[in-house]
Specification:
13 helices; Rossmann fold; 341 residues; transcription regulation; DNA binding; alpha/beta
């Protein structure tokens, strides 16, 4: 875009911290430090003056909404998740907010997305606010907050913890689900997942194949279907369940996918669990509202929320890297699974 076009675009959307950084010849993290008042001893006066001059020339002002949120002595933590529409994250947020409140913090939920381009937008959001800590669910990009946030912890919801502070082991969850179904005599087990790039769902796909192999069960690619988040029906699943050699059990990567199996089964006159067993992952409230109630692997949202706050505040207030915390999951057996017959 030429300079005239850039000026027109800036007038339409208002100047951002990125514009200030470009004009001053510094990084966005430097701009954030200046406007958060955390530049003392970290940025030389000449650089600070350059940032302020560029901001003044562009008419940039720090987003006032962030300061409005910081009432009294309460400080802010950001919880960045792949999909804020998933009710599981609402439960995590509730628990995290309660734990944070006891320590004088509030928690803000940020929809980080699962597209690599969302990382830059998240950093832009962080630059426009003042946060004292960031919790981010592992993604294909998993940005580091750099100078934007004093303390950052990553949640690894996948196969390996890596450098994460909190680990939700996909292999353990999927292994317990497959072990339960195998113990009931099921050998043709399918998987219904989300068609998303988010690390948790890629990890659960890999863990599914590994768990089948551990139980000497065959993997059939025809039995593996992925649907978009928010899908209300699956024609592919209906076609699969109508086949002569259909799976006798389905593992859903998320409890939200289980209604698709129930619906497809009902359309075909199949009954859950006598004709098809169903297992979910998450143990959200929906699992207990279904008929029959859903067997699922519980990822305790209350413990996850409290653990995330503990980890980020330990880093924020202690300065060092917190020890790895692994979340213990467990299968909750309800009425959606039965022995194969």
């Amino acid at each position: 875009m030429n300079s005239q076009g850039e000026r027109q675009d800036r007038r339409m959307r208002g100047p951002t911290s990125r514009d200030v950084a470009r004009a001053a010849g510094v990084s966005q993290s430097t701009v954030s430090l200046v406007f958060s008042g955390k530049d003392s001893g970290r940025i030389n006066p000449a650089t600070r003056d350059a940032v302020l001059s560029a901001a003044n020339a562009l008419g940039y002002r720090l987003n006032a909404s962030a300061r409005a949120l910081k009432l009294g002595t309460e400080r802010l933590l950001a919880l960045a998740v792949p999909n804020a529409a998933n009710p599981y994250f609402a439960a995590v947020l509730k628990a995290a907010a309660m734990a944070a409140r006891a320590r004088g913090y509030a928690v803000v939920l940020i929809n980080a997305g699962d597209d690599p381009g969302d990382g830059e937008r998240l950093l832009e959001s962080l630059a426009a606010h003042t946060f004292d800590g960031l919790i981010v669910w592992e993604n294909p990009w998993t940005p580091t907050a750099g100078g934007f946030v004093p303390a950052t912890v990553v949640v690894a919801d996948g196969m390996e913890p890596g450098d994460a502070a909190v680990f939700i082991p996909a292999a353990t969850m999927v292994r317990s689900a497959i072990g339960h179904l195998a113990g009931l005599g099921h050998r043709r087990i399918g998987r219904l997942g989300f068609d998303m790039a988010a690390v948790p769902f890629r990890a659960r796909a890999l863990a599914f194949r590994e768990a089948l192999a551990e139980h000497a069960l065959p993997f059939d690619s025809r039995f593996e279907i992925e649907e978009a988040f928010g899908a209300t029906a699956s024609e592919r699943l209906t076609a699969l369940l109508s086949g002569a050699s259909r799976p006798t059990a389905i593992l859903c990567d998320d409890d939200l996918l289980a209604p698709l199996v129930y619906r497809a089964a009902a359309r075909l006159g199949l009954r859950v669990p006598s004709d098809i067993s169903v297992v979910g992952i998450g143990d959200i409230d929906l699992a207990r509202l279904m008929e029959p109630e859903l067997t699922t692997v519980a990822i305790p949202a209350d413990i996850v929320g409290e653990t995330l706050v503990e980890a980020v505040l330990e880093r924020n207030e202690g300065g060092g890297a917190p020890p790895l915390r692994t979340i213990e999951t467990h299968i909750v057996i309800r009425g959606s699974t039965a022995p194969f017959r």
